[in-house]
Amino acid sequence: MVTLRRAALALVVAAVAGATVPAVGSTSTRHFSRPIHVDVSAANATGEPSIAVARDGTEYIVAPDGAGVRTPNAIGAGGSGGSLIWRSPDRGRTWTFLGNYDLPTGGGDTDVAVMPNGTVVASGLSSVACATVAVSTDKAQSWRADPLAGCATFPLMNDRQWTAVDGNNTVYTVIGNTVEGGLDLVRAKPGVLGVTPTTTLQLYTGGDYEWPGTIALNSRDGTAYVVWNTTGLPDDCDGTSGDSCTPAAASSKTPDLIEVSVVPRGATAAPTPRVVASRHFDTYDSFVTDAVDSAGNVYVVWSERHPAQRETWIMLSTSHNRGRSWSAPQRINRVPSTTTYPWVTAGDAGRIAISYYGTSAHGYSPQSVPSGATWYVYSTFSTDGGRHFAEYRTTGPIQHGMICTSGTGCAAGTRNLLDFFETAADPQGCLVTSYADNSANAGAAVVSYVRQTSGPGLSARRPCR
After folding, report:
1. Three-state DSSP state, 211
2. What are the boundaries of each domain within the chain?
3. Within 13 A of 259's CA, how many CA atoms are on the CB side?
4. Rounded distance between C-alpha atoms, residue 209 and residue 231, angstroms
5. CA distance linking residue 213 with residue 259, whole number of Å
6. How many angstroms separate the CA atoms of 266 and 222, rounded?
7. What pTM was computed for the model?
8. Where are the beta strands (DSSP E) in 167-297?
9. pLDDT in tens, 29-79
10. In the chain, which residues have pLDDT < 50?
11. Cβ atoms within 10 A of the Cβ of 42, count?
12. What is the DSSP letter of 182?
């Protein structure tokens, strides 16, 4: 979703990781570093960070800071606003702020990916709803940025773009199209400026998608999987108070659908969307996310409200046949009662990690928990394709009270985390997490980081270390 943040000044900040801390909620041997704040500058306070790791271990985090003019690191990193980027060469121990990679009007939404050859690809959304993709071949020191889609379209066209790469020559960007009420997938090649679009597919024009979900690539055959949810609103319980919430209080009894578009490499026509799951529970509170493991198994994860329990659950469905059929949805979270903003990362065959914000407090949604609710980052791991999971609390408190999931229509201080956070795997198969901490800087969110330091990771060949 488009985010507007206050103006900020540019600084370079480094943070040092502390001692390893054990996980909470599991007895296995996985451990995690002490969480660190990537950037404690009030000028760079923001949320919804994205993370990607290069094959040489270099890590990149990007986050939006609202419309503004902020220069890249190569010319001083001065100004305010923009699409922000940080880099770590040492497994997250220290981070350098590199300024803005987007066009001067960027800073609405951000995402980042890294090609096998180390080329960094970062996307952004400008204040005029123009999606831009920038390319760097020198580890984010300098950029070639190019408008991709939606520029100069009225009314505003684009909302929330996601980016993925297929090898060293193809960039995919999926974009919410607010004019047509659907989703566009743009395939592009790295070019003289940034990327050169080659094909645009209208994946969905049904007009009832909830949020433009994420994109995952099968690295072996180049198949792209784009996921999203629809706007049924069953059991939403919005505006309900007290201790009762029934389906009769819902805005609609129409089921929410979790859908996927399976796009083969080189496709020139949009495929018919497939239904992953039909749910009589409201899936409003997050983006749907997906990942593909090395064997081609596809994992789709979402959040849904369960008013009878006054809880919000993280759900998983899996496909072992490239999206043709899907397993029955299963609940993933165990220790926290109310959860939101799931993200899934896959590694070798059957190895996945699903992360989310969670609290033990009960509520009809993340927006209705008590003011004393304390939120943490949780990650749960499976090494057998989702049959069994081990859940961990990997951070200290990151938020107190409600987490607003209603976009820009939120009370002050309830949406500082913004709308999601991300995880990735490093070359050793360790899970790395970029998240927003709203408890450490006088109510302003701080981009933060935690990494797995031991135990079974996302590589089957060796444990994380």
Report:
1. strand
2. 20-454
3. 24
4. 6
5. 9
6. 8
7. 0.92
8. 170-177, 182-190, 195-204, 209-217, 224-230, 256-263, 274-279, 289-292
9. 899 999 999 999 888 999 999 999 999 999 999 999 987 777 777 777 777
10. 1-23, 25-27
11. 14
12. E
Rounded CA-CA distance 398/359 in Å is 10
Angle at 352 between CA 345 and CA 162, to 5 degrees: 20
- Look up residue 146 and give its two tokens: 């190019």
CA angle 67, 71, 74 (to 5 degrees): 155
Fold classified for 20-454: Neuraminidase (2.120.10)
Q: Around Cβ 135, how many Cβ atoms within 10 Å?
A: 23
Question: Which tokens belong to 69?
Answer: 């003019």
CB 126 within 8 A of CB 157: no
DSSP assignment letter at 15 = -
Degrees (nearest 5) of the Cα angle 269, 271, 272? 140
In the 8-state DSSP scheme, what is residue 293?
Answer: -
The enclosing H or E element of 315 equals strand 311-319
Tell me phi and psi for residue 247, to 5 degrees.
Answer: -55, -25
**Rounded to an integer, what distance in angstroms lies between the CA atom of residue 54 and that of residue 117?**
8
On the question of a cis peptide bond just before residue 456, with omega within 30 degrees of 0, the verdict is: no
